[in-house]
Protein: Calcium-transporting ATPase
Amino acid sequence: MERYLRENFDVKPKNSSEEALRRWRSAVSIVKNRRRRFRMVADLAKRAETERKRKKIQEKLRVALYVQTAALHFIDAGTAGKKEGKVDYKLSKEVKQAGFGIDPDKLASIVRSHDSKDLNSHGGVEGLAEKVSVSLGDGVVSSDISLRQKVFGCNKYAEKPPRTFWMFVSDALQDLTLVILMICAVVSIGVGIGTEGWPKGFYDGLGILLCIFLVVMVTAISDYKQSLQFMNLDKEKKKIMVQVTREGSRQKVPIYDLVVGDIVHLSVGDQVPADGVFVSGHSLSIDESSLSGETELVHSSPEKPFLLAGTKVQDGSGKMLVTSVGMRTEWGRLMITLSDGGEDETPLQVKLNGVATVIGKIGLAFGILTFMVLTTRFLVEKALQHELTDWSGHDALKLLDAFAIAVTIIVVAVPEGLPLAVTLSLAYAMKALMDQKALVRHLSACETMGSASCICTDKTGTLTTNHMVVNKIWICGEAKVVKRNAGGYALKSSLSESILGILLESIFQNTGSEVVKGKDGKTNILGTPTETALLEFGLLLGGDFKTHHRESNIVKVEPFNSERKKMSVLVAVSGGKFRAFCKGASEMILKICDKIVSENGETESISEEKRNTIASIIDGFACEALRTLCLAFKDIEDSANANNIPEDGYTLIAIVGIKDPVRPGVKEAVESCLAAGIKVRMVTGDNINTAKAIATECGILTEGGLAIEGPDFCSKSPEEMEKLIPKLQVMARSLPSDKHTLVKQLRGMFNEVVAVTGDGTNDAPALHEADIGLAMGIAGTEVAKENADVIIMDDNFTTIVNVAKWGRAVYINIQKFVQFQLTVNIVALMVNFISACISGSAPLTTVQLLWVNLIMDTLGALALATEPPHEGLMKRPPIGKNVEFITRTMWRNIIGQSIYQLIVLVLFQFNGKRLLKLSGLDATSTLNTFIFNTFVFCQVFNEINSRDMRKINVFRNILSSRAFIGIMISTITFQVIMVEILGPFADTVPLSWQLWSLSILIGALSLVVAVILKCIPVEEDEDAAPAKHPDGYHALPSGPDMA
Structure:
């Protein structure tokens, strides 16, 4: 079976080829309910149609923009020298009453068509702001928001309505076998009443209909609850917070609350949340490929002011005025035109579709064979009694019963619930992870995380708290400790006025963050943790953010990014002069400095000896686990270079040491990973000494482990990398390209399953390349989140370990469910087939088989596939690549339990009356009810057995699984009702307490059988990796290799 599954039902967790997706679809031949089975499977035809539509719309948009640009150039040339007149057009009554001076559609068309002429005719950006009644400095007034939403619309896109509960009922009724059984039930009612009278002839058919109703309702309720979970998760995925200025203060609002007139702040990695026009900014580069298909960056400026929703900020920062939202944006119009083709199915879903196909074929053969045997025996008996030409209603009922039993065997045998159990388990895991601060964006990631053998993690914010404070500063040749309770007075008094002035200027001028007053009057800093720490330090020294910004005019900004590792700003100062400020990675800033601020405030040259001293200061700070930054400036006398920020010749002001403490629980989480066979590697842009100090504190860097800088690593040959990587534990001063190279080598050279964290725009390639991309929810940009498979909402490494734990739980839970279901399949098929061949009747009726199908399918999945993870999962190695899904341990348990149940049931089927001392008219009915009852209790106790496939104690943590307990109680309760109350409908009779006790005892003996089976050693698979556990896990390394 495994070879067949690998050949036909093998797909990658990410970016699987269309050929592989089509191959497994064509291999699925037996499906009872195509609509339900493939509901969570990507529609390839719809996806291809969507892609064609997207390209067509992008092409139209490109052509429209080119034509518009050309037309505007032509018009400008024709009207050169002519005075522009004001554009006159009628405003709608609603817009006039609201007090706005421009119609929503007109406003939207200006940006959508990139019509600079029309924009200028309305007075430019300031004119538009006036017409939408907003101040470019203060933004929207909160009391106007509802009015703006009413006039200009909400920032929401039209979505198709969610599926209702009755749609899921309809899906469940599409099952072909259930439809056939319903027809059989109706015919049975008609023939039964005609032959046996009312109400006796009514019971059999009604029993089947009632059981079908129960199956359909339970299935629909389960599917509907799953859909609600996925819908809630989908809403979480779409939650984006946007920074806006409202009522003069900068604040964060959900993207859906954005209105026309809002002043939006944009920075690297942001998604442009609506259509708008550029207000101000520096080096703002926009990637419009998602909208127009063009890969060339668009540089926004007052000359090119148009910004479109759905595009990404690739570099720089800026502010925009929102002009249209929701369905009036080009992005909204694009989204409504396209229909989603669905998400790729996970490897487990595909594999279980294969298992269901194989078992379905066997079940179909057994169903047909059973019907042929029952029909042949019936015809032979009639022939022996010379009644072949004499047919009655009773004969018709017998043939109908034989056909219904055969169809029901197929219902039970085709495990339609197997692939859907994966979806159920993943939905449950995703909901639980959401509560634990991990948002799973792609289903397969939750599953793949169980196989992760390596985690490449960032340092800042993931291993550390991301609550940064300036702890030390080296200035004027002296290192000083910054004490918070001293109010900065001691440090401030030790610095001359000129040195303090230039230090505060470098802090407040060269920043991408902002100091604002909240509604409560408190001072808040909006920006990155590093910037926040510097600004807090500046405020502690008595600086004032607004005062410093008023005193000079910012001419040009080069924002920080992971490639440059520095931020620079050029400001105009008094006297027509200019000054450049630069801050960033200490080694890089030190290289571009040739002077230093001395103790008396004068500048002096940096000698080679002084440079070495400063380098040792940086190393000393780093060895104390401090993040080091250098602050520098350069005065520019030559106004000819006023538009260029210099690349060298700077004067060093200070070295700042920023403390970012390690998160509580990280060391334990790293130890947990090592115990689980997951190697943790730190990949950071920080100084190598800082990285080593933090890595040692976290337990990542161990004795004999290697720490290396990113550029050094990438300069190595493949052969050298092959030797280095097994020992590599820390990569410092790494660029995003270095991280991408490491991930690629780990996956290609060492065949590892790699999880990688990222937060920046440039981390997107590494997140995409990794088996599992983990984006940071707090520090992460929208571009990083869009390329990730999981978003870690609290940026905490412990949460990543929880994702790994749940990934393992999903895989194990599905194995448990498959083991349980295959056992029920085999026993139900064989009991009815053997009985049909020998006695000419089936002990389990249609109604009883439908009830068993419900127990093993929907209820079994709910009980076993939703069990929470336990700590033992993180004491075993990762799930290996290409291991057998149905392992030899599982086959041992399945075959052993099946043999036990078959022996017991067949024994009672043919010797039951003698063994149980049954006599009288209802002896056969009592025996059949006893067999049915015993069979159900065997499944109840085998469900408990399936909770652990290897360990004897199957009751461990059973009370923590409320779903399991609830389903056990529900199953037993309904079994009692079926036997004692619903006898006429279920073909049962009430049983004595002795027979009830014996049924439960025989079922409970399967627990003893399970203990015996688990003592039988299982021969290992020769093709598997060495020292592989019988459940598909690789043995943990021991000795020095453990690290």
